[in-house]
Amino acid sequence: MVIWSEIAKTDLRAIYDYIANDSKHYAKKVAQDIRQKSDILSDLPAMGRIVSELCDKNIRELSLYSYRIIYEIKNEQVYILTIVHKRRDLQGSNIKPEK
Description:
Layout (H helix, E strand, L loop, with lengths): L1 E3 L1 H15 L3 H16 L9 E2 L8 E6 L2 E8 L2 E9 L14
Parallel strand pairs: 1-5
Antiparallel strand pairs: 2-3, 3-4, 4-5
């Protein structure tokens, strides 16, 4: 099961809103694609690569378009922690693993 954190939901809405300023059609497509890619994690949780900045084997990422879908594998669950632009530096980030 894939569980979205409130931060990740807010990130997805912000991505949609930003893209929708230019194209509601493309914004919807990007949001749907992010959701679909993250849904795969329920069957293949380790498919993403380890987030190099965080050095935690349980915190991984998938890449899609210009975004990083950052998630944590914990107790056989997958938690989507955040979605960030690839240009964003995660050093000193406030990414919080699920409790």
